Amino acid sequence: MKTLVLTRAEPDAVGMSPLGGLLCPAGFADDWGVRVDFCGHGEGGQLLRAPVSPGLFRSAHVRGATRLPLGTPTFVEGPGILAFDGDRERALAPGQRATLTVTRTGPRVIDPRAVLRLAAEQGLMLELPHWIDPYDGGTGGGCC
Amino acid sequence: MGGLGIIVNPLSGRDSRRLTARADTVSHESKRNQIARIVVGRGSRRLRAHPGAWEPRRLAISAVEHLQIGAKIEEVRTPITHSAQDTQAAVLAMREQGCRVLVVLGGDGTSRAVTKAWPDAVLMPLSTGTNNVFPLWIEPTIAGLAAGLIAAGRIAPDVVAPVPRSSISILKARRPTWRWSTRCFYKVTASAISGRSSLSS
């Protein structure tokens, strides 16, 4: 692996994300991604040990890990393979260049804590219709 | 139908990392149980039918059929190819049917497949995969409750902010080649939502 471009570099994750997250963290709310460049053994860099899978650590020689502000393009050049979340999808021919940009245009992901806090503030869980779950033998159908 | 759609990847949490690492297997029964908790958590009387992706193991429909709370799964029947295309076809059908929120059970790759089909979807992704960053690790009952409030319009979806995505354009295609190379391997990852690639030469 030569380069990682991470939209999330989580230090407490398992997989590729901590390879950036243990050097230059980026959460989903941060306005930057992270680029990590690797090098081979004996080519310099620093040795990083990271959990790449559950119960499995590996070491990688890291040449550098830098923040990528949102909207700022970065480049990689072939030959190589572009993989998206592990799925190897595009080949880069020798000399072929790819531009990678992290933007905040992804899907919207619900934050349950924030939603339920709003629900509490608006009293949305009050005065709802009576709810009987047949699985619950403890109430006998009563409401309190 | 409409409201809250359920996508479940029957293959997530079951790949070779059980052998090459020490990952746990996520059983079909575990996924059924999580779906049941989501639907119970959803708990609305107004929207009882949840569109569910049709897949060979029928995890969503079997999870809900004996709940006896008035909820049911309306299967969204799209062609089965045993690939990520199945997820994308189901997502497109759910969007056409007016789903406001998609609950997605799977890994990073499952959420990525969903957003390739529907880039600005409102998602409640739950992890049933391996090495996941994007989906949440949260009690499904609570996830169903929160997703249900959004799907029913009781909380406006604009409180849900977009997450980062990486986009790619490929330039200077001097001579295209599709032969795999492992010498130089670029990985674009993290939250999975590395979605849309545009290819220009």
Describe the structure.
The complex is a heterodimer of chains A (144) and B (201). Chain A has a domain at 3-100. Chain A contains two helices and nine strands, in the order E-H-E-E-E-E-E-E-E-E-H. The longest helix of chain A is centred in the C-terminal third of the chain and has 10 residues, at 112-121. Chain A is elongated and about 70 Å long. In chain A, 10% of the residues lie in helices and 40% in strands. Chain A has 144 residues and is mostly beta strands. In chain A, the strands form three sheets. Chain A has a four-stranded antiparallel beta sheet. Chain A has helices at residues 17-21, 112-121, and strands at 3-6, 32-38, 46-53, 56-69, 74-77, 80-84, 87-92, 97-103, 108-109. With 201 residues, chain B is an alpha/beta fold. Chain B has one domain (3-159): Rossmann fold (3-Layer(aba) Sandwich), CATH 3.40.50. Helix content of chain B is 30%, strand content 22%. Chain B has helices spanning 17-20, 28-42, 59-64, 84-96, 108-117, 140-151, and strands at residues 3-8, 49-53, 72-76, 99-106, 122-127, 165-171, 185-189, 197-199. In chain B, the strands form three sheets. Chain B has a three-stranded parallel beta sheet with strand order 1-4-5, sandwiched between helices. A two-stranded parallel sheet of chain B has the order 2-3. Chain B has a two-stranded parallel sheet with strand order 6-8. In chain B, helix 5 (108-117) links the parallel strand 4 and strand 5. In chain B, helix 2 (28-42) crosses helix 6 (140-151) and helix 4 packs across helix 5 (108-117). Chain B starts with a strand and ends with a strand. At the A-B interface, strand 1, strand 6, strand 7, strand 8 and strand 9 of A face helix 5, strand 5, helix 6, strand 6 and strand 7 of B.
